[in-house]
């Protein structure tokens, strides 16, 4: 049976590759994406691509220098990224995507809702200009109508359903409704009492919009689009929610959150939020609308004092574990084995975004296409482009405690089996004779000697990944080809990820804090059992 299942997956992968290359027929805005899309063993939706497991990326443009559309598509293709979400329907970008096979969600920006929501004719013109003019050469799969409107622009909420219906009418008239679906991304903050998930329900003041919307999604085969940000749940908890729980790291059984009503065990924030959405829909008697996560991710940089957990290690850990979780079709405790298509926020850093320091650093790449950090996808069980691990280095974290650096250096040159002979007096890497410089050499040698695997540049938090080559003089560091000098292999002393398998973020949502408090209480109770 296992061999048969594997064979079927290969067939599905082949079909995906063929369809992706030749097939043509969707506020805002991390990651390498798979060529392989794994079909869910239990489908909640009739139409592809909402019943397949895949990872996509959001592409925002709040940059001081936006890459040309052709540069963006070149990067997408070089990284094998097959699914993207745009925050508008820019004609130049759509033209650059023509005949690439990349599946695209286009968007109606919030500022266009008034016109489209008040006029069937305006909606028809929008579809003619932004969909019909590009389809089928551009593989548009869905239209996202606005972004987090119910939570960020409540006065515009009455326009959502008219806009969705008018756009649907235009798709029907163009005979495109079977191929292109219409939905709208929501902040997870519209879900109240979200833990335990079985008690979750949507903010009842939104029922006049949500009830007809869910019926619309149900009748058209479209997904509920949801933005899920465990980073903000963790940050608002002030340490109450364990970092491991937010990052998909493995938890001991007594640390798992348990839904007392269903006895389902939750090992990560992501699954708990997705299941809360399923239960909230069931509360309104809707049980066959799939959830698509349109935004999720983790910032790789932030204010050092206020946002210490916005760093490369955690961004790598969250996104790598998320990809593995989604692509293995793990599903959620409520719907095991059911695909949750997910779009990671985001492709590029956006240096002109307002807000906290971390708001600018959610990208996998900077605006020049240089990887912000190394994304580790080894062991995910699927074919993935992994070019971001080229030309990356593991170095001592600036300002790290010298005693901790020395301890990590001693481990790397001892149990870690790094050949540190080049650090002795008279050898190429002896100078500068500082703990930080010697540790950088040893850390980098270990990191590349272990194949740049997730958790191999951690060293109890005193190491960090960079794209800046630390080589100097005749002291050359392994980087581009992963070469390093190891005397053997060893496990790192401390790992940072699992070994196996608004618009965007409403930072101050009180409802999310309720989830955190309840989750914290439950975790505390379970820990005492």
TrEMBL record:
<dbReference type="InterPro" id="IPR012946">
    <property type="entry name" value="X8"/>
</dbReference>
<keyword id="KW-0336">GPI-anchor</keyword>
<protein>
    <recommendedName>
        <fullName>glucan endo-1,3-beta-D-glucosidase</fullName>
        <ecNumber>3.2.1.39</ecNumber>
    </recommendedName>
</protein>
<dbReference type="Pfam" id="PF00332">
    <property type="entry name" value="Glyco_hydro_17"/>
</dbReference>
<dbReference type="GO" id="GO:0009506">
    <property type="term" value="C:plasmodesma"/>
</dbReference>
<keyword id="KW-0325">Glycoprotein</keyword>
<keyword id="KW-1003">Cell membrane</keyword>
<dbReference type="GO" id="GO:0005975">
    <property type="term" value="P:carbohydrate metabolic process"/>
</dbReference>
<dbReference type="GO" id="GO:0005886">
    <property type="term" value="C:plasma membrane"/>
</dbReference>
<dbReference type="Pfam" id="PF07983">
    <property type="entry name" value="X8"/>
</dbReference>
<dbReference type="GO" id="GO:0042973">
    <property type="term" value="F:glucan endo-1,3-beta-D-glucosidase activity"/>
</dbReference>
<feature type="signal peptide">
    <location>
        <begin position="1"/>
        <end position="20"/>
    </location>
</feature>
<keyword id="KW-0611">Plant defense</keyword>
<keyword id="KW-0326">Glycosidase</keyword>
<keyword id="KW-0449">Lipoprotein</keyword>
<keyword id="KW-0472">Membrane</keyword>
<dbReference type="InterPro" id="IPR044965">
    <property type="entry name" value="Glyco_hydro_17_plant"/>
</dbReference>
<keyword id="KW-0732">Signal</keyword>
<keyword id="KW-1015">Disulfide bond</keyword>
<comment type="similarity">
    <text>Belongs to the glycosyl hydrolase 17 family.</text>
</comment>
<feature type="domain" description="X8">
    <location>
        <begin position="392"/>
        <end position="477"/>
    </location>
</feature>
<dbReference type="InterPro" id="IPR017853">
    <property type="entry name" value="GH"/>
</dbReference>
<dbReference type="GO" id="GO:0098552">
    <property type="term" value="C:side of membrane"/>
</dbReference>
<keyword id="KW-0378">Hydrolase</keyword>
<dbReference type="GO" id="GO:0006952">
    <property type="term" value="P:defense response"/>
</dbReference>
<dbReference type="InterPro" id="IPR000490">
    <property type="entry name" value="Glyco_hydro_17"/>
</dbReference>
């Amino acid at each position: 049976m296992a061999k048969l299942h594997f064979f079927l997956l290969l067939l599905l992968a082949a079909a995906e590759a063929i369809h992706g290359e030749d097939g043509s027929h969707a506020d805002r805005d991390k990651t390498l994406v798979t060529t392989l899309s794994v079909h869910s063993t239990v489908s909640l939706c009739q139409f592809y691509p909402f019943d397949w497991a895949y990872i996509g990326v959001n592409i925002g443009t709040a940059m001081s220098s936006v890459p040309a559309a052709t540069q963006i598509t070149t990067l997408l293709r070089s990284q094998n990224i097959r699914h993207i979400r745009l925050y508008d329907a820019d004609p130049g970008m759509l033209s650059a995507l023509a005949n690439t096979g990349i599946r695209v969600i286009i968007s109606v920006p919030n500022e266009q809702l008034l016109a489209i929501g008040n006029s069937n004719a305006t909606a028809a013109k929008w579809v003619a200009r932004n969909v019909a003019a590009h389809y089928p050469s551009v593989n548009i799969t869905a239209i996202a109508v606005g972004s987090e409107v119910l939570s960020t622009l409540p006065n515009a909420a009455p326009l959502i359903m008219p806009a969705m219906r008018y756009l649907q009418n235009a798709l029907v008239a163009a005979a495109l409704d079977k191929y292109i679906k219409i939905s709208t991304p929501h902040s997870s903050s519209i879900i109240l009492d979200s833990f335990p998930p079985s008690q979750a329900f949507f903010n009842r003041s939104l029922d006049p919009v949500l009830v007809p919307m869910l019926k619309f999604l149900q009748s058209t085969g479209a997904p509920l689009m949801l933005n899920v940000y465990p980073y903000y749940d963790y940050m608002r908890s002030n340490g109450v929610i364990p970092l491991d729980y937010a990052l998909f790291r493995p938890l001991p059984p007594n640390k798992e959150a348990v839904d007392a009503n269903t006895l389902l065990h939750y090992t990560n924030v992501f699954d708990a939020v997705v299941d809360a959405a399923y239960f909230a829909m069931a509360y309104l008697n809707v049980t066959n609308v799939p959830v698509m996560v349109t935004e999720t991710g983790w910032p790789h940089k932030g204010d050092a004092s206020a946002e210490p957990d916005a760093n490369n290690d955690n961004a790598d850990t969250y996104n790598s574990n998320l990809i593995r979780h989604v692509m293995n079709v793990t599903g959620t405790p409520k719907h095991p084995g059911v695909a949750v298509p997910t779009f990671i926020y985001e492709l590029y850093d956006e240096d002109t975004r307002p807000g906290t320091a971390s708001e600018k650093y959610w990208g996998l790449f900077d605006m020049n296409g240089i990887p912000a950090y190394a994304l580790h996808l080894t062991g995910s069980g699927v074919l993935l482009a992994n070019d971001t691990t080229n030309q990356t280095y593991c170095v001592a974290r600036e300002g790290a405690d010298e005693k901790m650096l020395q301890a990590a250096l001693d481990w790397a040159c001892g149990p870690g089996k790094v050949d540190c002979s080049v650090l002795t007096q008279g050898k190429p890497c002896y100078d500068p004779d500082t703990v930080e410089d010697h540790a950088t050499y040893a850390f980098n040698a270990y990191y590349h000697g272990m194949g740049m695997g997730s958790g191999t540049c951690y060293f109890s938090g005193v190491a960090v990944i960079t794209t800046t080559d630390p080589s100097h003089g005749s002291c050359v560091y392994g980087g581009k080809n992963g070469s390093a000098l190891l005397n053997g292999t060893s496990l790192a002393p401390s790992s940072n990820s699992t070994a196996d398998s608004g618009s965007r973020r409403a930072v101050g949502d009180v409802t999310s804090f309720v989830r955190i408090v309840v989750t914290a209480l439950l975790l505390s109770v379970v820990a005492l059992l």
